Amino acid sequence: MVRGKIQMKRIENATSRQVTFSKRRNGLLKKAYELYVLCDAEVAVIIFSHKGKLYEFSSSDNMQNTIERYRQYKKDVQSNIPENERYTQQLRLEAENMAKKIEFLEVAKRRMLGQNLGSCSIDELQEVESQLERSLRNIRARKGYLFKEQILQLKAKERYMQEENTKLSAKPAERGGGDRTVPRVAGKPLFLAGRPLDME
């Protein structure tokens, strides 16, 4: 039976991912040892698992010696590269990283829209489904919040209109309470010092 080609992407299933990590780690360390023995090469391999556990192999007695040799080599090489060339390399690397991020986001966007799902595994489809459910919960929560805010605003407006209506209703009564009968003589109002004379 022909073995299917393994897609180079993150394994979503945690158990399968751990099994694959253990197998490939051991294979990598074995290859490093063989390269050291067969070719008399100085080899150093450092591996950190996703949980932070360290695995390493060094053909020398001290891993630090190989690391320092590597650092010195990189320093010497960098010192021989003109400043503008280093800057160009940095820009190129940043552009490549940005392109990868854009591609990843585009793929995620298409999957969220239900496009290009034919190549997705069950784990990937479950992840897309979980993301959609989270988005739907957030939308509902936001919608509920806005409804509550709108209700509170309408209630506040209603209270304000009731208070204004009460004030307007009270003003005619106040004006009516201050109205007094002006005394008249021979059918004409009687005033004293510019004011109506109270005959009571």
TrEMBL record:
Where is the region Disordered? 165-185
Question: A Pfam family for this UniProt protein?
Answer: SRF-TF
MF terms in GO = DNA-binding transcription factor activity; protein dimerization activity; RNA polymerase II transcription regulatory region sequence-specific DNA binding
Q: Which residues form a coiled coil?
A: 88-142
Task: Report biased composition (Basic and acidic residues) as residue ranges.
Answer: 165-182
Which residues does the UniProt record annotate as the domain K-box? 88-178
GO process terms (BP): positive regulation of transcription by RNA polymerase II
Which keywords annotate this record?
Coiled coil, DNA-binding, Nucleus, Transcription, Transcription regulation
Q: Does the keyword Plastid apply?
A: no
Compartmental location = Nucleus
Show the GO cellular component annotation of the record: nucleus
Positions of the MADS-box domain: 1-61
Domain of life from the UniProt record: Eukaryota
For this protein, the record's PANTHER family field holds: SERUM RESPONSE FACTOR HOMOLOG (PTHR48019)
This chain's protein is named MADS-box protein AGL42-like isoform X1
What organism is the protein native to? Gossypium australe
